[in-house]
């Protein structure tokens, strides 16, 4: 089973249809949609939905993947749910680059620092990070350095 978490702009009209098409690629690909606007509610929702999907599958090693903001969530939710993770151009610093786009961006700092002590060290070797050479919005060099701590 592959659980897919979309990025921030996935709910915009053009991208929404593309994201919905993922469910038709393969029956093992599962999309979990979330608001992208309310970080604490999103985290609760994602934890609940991922747990539900894990209980409904016989796959012993499910995978969670995310793009952009979905990468931020896939890394954390995957760790908390003991899943392998693959993230594509993750938005690892939404508290810095999303003010004005989301409500309460400061909640991302709280989520990133209070969920688990030494999160990055404990998650080492459990997450594959794929980055573009150049990013329009995100600093890929900073993401690379942060991803491999």
From TrEMBL:
<protein>
    <submittedName>
        <fullName>Uncharacterized protein</fullName>
    </submittedName>
</protein>
<dbReference type="Pfam" id="PF05728">
    <property type="entry name" value="UPF0227"/>
</dbReference>
<dbReference type="InterPro" id="IPR008886">
    <property type="entry name" value="UPF0227/Esterase_YqiA"/>
</dbReference>
<dbReference type="InterPro" id="IPR029058">
    <property type="entry name" value="AB_hydrolase_fold"/>
</dbReference>
